[in-house]
């Protein structure tokens, strides 16, 4: 197929690379000319394992292109995917302005093309949005038919390509046979059951999935804290819980660790809370999830201050391993708190440093975290020099080896469970073990 993808962020870039690898022709569209230039050159605009290789291969064989011209993209494709951002407003509701704007652009291009077109919405949106998008598209397209579907993505940063290849299912929210056929053809090489439902059901599923993930993180962290109060390692407890796959389902996220963050869980949970409030639906359990998540960050800061250490090396600034994404990162909040308490902080994060050198993260850091730029170091030894405590915010094999080499007497606060059990030779502990 010939596929145009509007929005070249995490979802758009990964989808473009995977579709091209699977034999489709892809043209990406973004308002940011720098992203477009990177894609056209076969370079990744984000840090994501294997993405650089797939993009380079796709461009080399001529199956990936990029442009800022919406009409060109629609003219050269059979299906258009919308993967633009839906950032939260101050009230918590998603800003759908980018989605609606792109719909109008695509509709106008379809009118010019004079050929029926399939449009698939992948941005996370509340139920009823596709219905409104369909009206915008059809109004702009005039008499030319537009077939629409909502196709939620379940890609995790750091494992997005693996998640693309091995999804639990592919959900198509549509009432148009032509749209369903288009999506089925697009994912023909993805081995997963396909479930077709009404668009509003598919839209709601994405919000519920991310809310459940946030709830699991918070639940496991609270179990870890209570277990530790009894002198029990919360990780051992949760390891047994997740082995019961009859009643307890997937083990993913069900392990004590640090707070959740990123561009999806906080935003989508916040949107669901907003809509519940606006519809006068009482949800005390869901309302408590952000509270307990924030408490995990607060307890981490308290643990550092209680230790007496003031020179702190933080390993991990992004919200999770394998990504450079700083949005809603609990590590960022923790470091701000520590600086406010007078601590001297040095930060080591290979992916963030790589993105910073590429320029993709530098603008974000300078705009949102200007004082962080001077705290980032290129080598872990620079962070460890004179450090009284090392704080691990996520787990990687590199961190595991580095911690073994810290000078004797250096305290280690492991917020992520880098080791499966405490190391006797190290002054080592976490919040849940």
What is the fourth-level CATH superfamily of the largest domain? NAD(P)-binding Rossmann-like Domain
The oligomerization state is: single chain
Strand content: 5-15%
CATH topology of the largest domain: Rossmann fold
Please identify the structural class as seen in this structure. alpha/beta
Walk across the major sheet and give the strand order.
3-2-1-4-5-6
How many individual β-strands? 14
Number of helices: 17
| Weakly predicted, low-confidence segments | none
- CATH architecture name of the largest domain: 3-Layer(aba) Sandwich
What is the mean pLDDT?
93
Q: Could you give the distance between the termini? A: 51 Å
| Total domain modules | 2
Shape call:
globular
In CATH's first tier, which class of the largest domain applies? Alpha Beta
Question: Helix content range of the residues, please?
Answer: 40-55%
Radius of gyration: 23 Å
Largest sheet: 6 strands, parallel
